[in-house]
Amino acid sequence: MDMEHVWLLPAIPVVIFAVIGLFGRLLPRGGDWLAILGMGAVTVLAALAIVDFQGDNIAVWSEEWMKISDGSRVVELIEISTYVDSITVVMLTAVTIVTLMVMVYSVGYMAGDSRYGWYFALLSFFAAAMLTLVVSGNLLMLYLAWEGVGLASYLLIGFWWEKQSAAEAAKKAFITTRIGDVGLLIGIILLWRGSGSFDIQEIIHHAESGGFDQTYLTITMLFLFAGAVGKSAQFPLHVWLPDAMEGPTPVSALIHAATMVVAGVYLVARMLPVFDTVLIARDVVLYTGLITAVMAASMALVTSDIKRVLAYSTVSQLGFMFVALGVGAVTAAMFHLLTHAFFKSLLFLGSGSVIHATEEQEVEQLGGLRRKMPATTITFTIGAIALAGIVPLAGFWSKDEILVAAQEGAPAIAYITLAATAVLTAVYSTRLVLLTFWGEPKNRSVHEHAHESPPVMVIPLLILTALAVVSGFVALDGVGEALGFAGGIGEVVYEGAHGHAYALNETVAIGATIASLFGIGLGFIYWWGCAARAEAARNWAPELHALLVNRYYIDHLYQATIDRVILGLSGVVGWFDRRVINETGVDGSAQGLGYFGLRLKFLQTGRIPNYALAMAVGVIAIALVAFGTN
Amino acid sequence: MSDLNFDYALLIPEFILVGTAILIIMADLFRKELGLGRLVLPAIAALGTIAAGAASLAYIDDVDDFANVIAIDNYTTFFRVLFTVVLLVVVVSGYEYVERNIRHTGEFYALLLLSTVGAIYMAGARELLTAYISIELLSFSLYVAVSLAKTNPRSAEAGLKYVLLGGVASAMLLYGMSLIYGTAGSTQYSEIAAAFSGGTSEYGFALLLGLVLLIAGLGFKASAVPFHMWTPDAYEGAPLPITAYLSATSKAATFALLLRIFAGPLLPVIDQWQWMMATIAVMTMVGGNLIALQQTNIKRLLAYSSIGQVGYMLMAITTISDASASALLVHVAGYLITNLAVFSAVIAFHNRTGKEELDDFAGLAETNPYLAMVLTAGMFSLAGMPLLAGFVTKFILFQAAASGGYLWLATVAVIASTISLYYYLQVIRRMYLLEPARGESGRWRLSPAGYIATGTLTAGVFLVGIYAGPLFTVADRAARVLALS
């Protein structure tokens, strides 16, 4: 497929969404096969497009959407455009493969659900919006797709809306990300105001040629970054992601690990040339990522819900990517995005397999599942090792890239914090594996009816495991060349000024490996067997434990702010709205207008002489106007 | 006069329409003898209309005229296509209604075809008398068409009112035209423009009086307040498809004529008429929308709603400029699509229930969710909600007025438009929030023609709302003929 036709990729799932949404009830099996076939076609087409892509050709396609002209002069031209470069290619790879795997897996996981067909319609809708976001060449279209994935996320988190907590979580996710989205919208409008265009490349060109005022652009990029912070669940807007785990687990794997939450990373990567012209904004990116990475990893240590641990882990890993972007290393960020998409969706689907088998997601209730669920145990463990960053699995290569970038391009504090976070990552990965699959079963009845998942769920796990093992190798020059990309990942992901071919930095690599092994060791020390040392550690510093369990009291702080400040303020506004605006202004004027209309209505007598008289009066009236104004 | 261009090929679309009308009357006469089925007449009308519309496309980018009286240019082509499409929609969505409620169906189709010819020449005329005769061709056809439901006394009453008041308006119009002829020395638009460009001080009074009468006469045809009073009665009494046609072609043709005249021969004397036009624009926007608040019959509601829409269009004439001319064409096209969508739905509703009071729409969302959706899209579009045609076209129209320096007029339009939301929502509220009447809660379906008409038009409402680019381009090309700048 030619790169010019990438618009086909989102077009296919949008059609399928319409078909299943409208006629799903008439289709056999609710139309799940249609969604999967469609997504399969999209994956094949994307693969063809990626093969066609050679690292240096940048494909642009555009079609006029709306033109506002003042006679002959075009005032505003808005286009539908796609833009494909190496960043897009990486995103396409991650999005298409993970979406397809999740859809197949869902056939088993969602079997028997009362809204089975609608679930697949929503997944198709999400895929369409996500692909649009990725291939979009201008910010307006990107924003539409951005809201589209947000809507899909909202609907899927709240998919089981009968459950109070799911409905609450969906609302929280929507509102929290919306705070960031407003920033994004303001940022887009400011960029348009400054450059006169929505086209991303034109904006970048405008910024690089110094067309923006520095202060103006700094503020603009911070607004834009707010959108990324919301969508990618970075501090201080990270609170929605753990709650979003109320959605079906495949959804968590797809939207809240591999695709939608990395949209923020993608946005910043896409706009990085503009960030480069205002370095303060880039520093904000760096430190936001850093704080988030370490904070989320620490919370993952004490969380007992298997999915929430993975959610905090995702937040933390996204922080790693933002750190990479903050030092200008797009290559490292996008590489980690790719490997993370594979091993994190693997972990989520593995946890889904556990939940499917046991209907239990508290690790305190699990344990000893390795004999009952061997395939899940092995694949999950491999995913966890990849996350911990042990050579030669995928996470090692990409995390190493980020560490190298941080060491070279940022103050020492960044490198030290990241290394510490890497230790924490290894600790909670180990803890999760040990508590879930090893040790003795803590709850007999849960353990009794546990069983391995059906093949339709295990096969996607196996495929993702393979990817979690090998996807890091694309970093190696030899592998990159064998796949048809001269020069390995550096050449593929970012050519030009920011690119650097992958070179293993032995010091960093060995240091990181030691950190990971150290973390795994700590994990074994505390949680192997009956986890007595973990109990002891908890009692040793109860305040620290409480701080982590209560998520640094950030949720409490937000709730208190909402309760005291916002609700108080809105009470006043509400009173004003009810009494002054509504009762006096709206109702008053409406009654006034209605009365006036009633009077006018009675002028309409139905008698012809009256009508003719009205016309005569009208003529006299406009004649008076005519003679009065001349 | 040998230099006049008598190229009859320029008029082929109208020949087709007139020929089809004659064919229908003949076929109707010998209906029994020939054993014609009930679908034959509408089929002939539809085919003739399609042929005329297709033939119109051959004149794109022509700059020509027939005997100096009818211009064949992009502007005329724009309206030729628009009016044939309207006619086709009325025929398709109305034939069931016509079959049930009108005895002489041949007359119905023939009159519509002939009136469409009148409407096209109103847009194409480049000379006052031709314009007048075209108006009368349209009007006379409609006087008869309004009273076609001979068994319904309201229909006859509506026809009589329309013809009597229309006579008064025609007299004023003709008198106004003769005064303009007297001051300019010609009935040709181009020569009037040339004459007025050279100064008008010596004819001050006669010219002003001529303009007053011209605006009053055309105001009647456009149903501008206070010349609108025939409108609700005629809309209510007329057979439903004719009401749809009145609200569409008759309005649009009047604006085609208004724009051609006020952006052409009368542009040099804009200072003399601008305040008059502004006054009736404001009265029409405010009056139409206010009285609509109190209506309980869907046809009367739509009558006042269309009066309100006319007010916005008059605003575009008042603030005449390159941008507002193009915006007016866009708005007319968007309004026609939306209004026809609403009327097709109302006709389908009437075909099933025989009712037309607002309260009869209670619970429609339950008994026919599809039709409720169509009506909701149409009502929201008329009110100017985003994603629908009405938003885009109104936005462009208001923007043209505001950026032309008439912010106050655009403000009035926005306020009037806000008021209008109330009565559009009244219909939607009844459909969705109220229960269906007792014993009428069963689901029902439309006829295939009903689905085709409403489905296509609703798709059009969304298409213009989301992807208006092509319509803007077409309207720009049509408006460029007027050579405003």
Task: Please provide a written account of the structure.
The complex is a heterodimer of chains A (630) and B (485). In chain A, 73% of the residues lie in helices and 4% in strands. Chain A is mainly alpha-helical and 630 residues long. In chain A, helix 1 packs antiparallel against helix 2 (32-52), helix 5 (139-157) runs antiparallel to helix 6 (164-195) and helix 12 (279-302) packs antiparallel against helix 13 (306-326). With 485 residues, chain B is an all-alpha fold. Chain B has helices at residues 12-29, 31-34, 40-56, 74-101, 105-124, 128-146, 153-184, 189-197, 204-222, 230-237, 240-262, 270-292, 298-318, 322-353, 364-367, 369-383, 389-403, 407-433, 448-466, 469-480, and strands at 64-66, 70-72. In chain B, a hairpin with a 3-residue loop joins strand 1 and strand 2. In chain B, helix 4 packs antiparallel against helix 5, helix 6 packs antiparallel against helix 7 and helix 14 (322-353) packs antiparallel against helix 17 (389-403). In chain B, 63% of the residues are buried. Classes of the chains: A mainly alpha (630), B mainly alpha (485).
Largest sheet of chain A: 2 strands, antiparallel
Largest interface: A-B, 38 and 54 residues
Quick one: biggest sheet of chain B?
Answer: 2 strands, antiparallel
Quantity of strands of chain B, as a count? 2
Written as H for each helix and E for each strand, in order along the chain, the element string of chain A is: HHEEHHHHHHHHHHHHHHHHHHHHHHHH
Average per-residue pLDDT of chain B, rounded, comes to 91
What is the helix/strand order of chain B? HHHEEHHHHHHHHHHHHHHHHH
Low-confidence stretches of chain B: none
Category from helices, strands and their pairing of chain B: mainly alpha
What is the helical fraction of chain B, as a range of percent? over 70%
Task: Describe what is shown at a glance.
The complex is a heterodimer of chains A (630) and B (485). With 630 residues, chain A is mainly α. Chain A has helices at residues 8-23, 32-52, 86-109, 116-135, 139-157, 164-195, 200-208, 214-231, 240-243, 249-258, 263-277, 279-302, 306-326, 330-358, 374-388, 394-409, 412-437, 444-448, 455-470, 477-482, 488-493, 506-527, 532-540, 542-549, 554-601, 608-628, and strands at 59-70, 73-84.
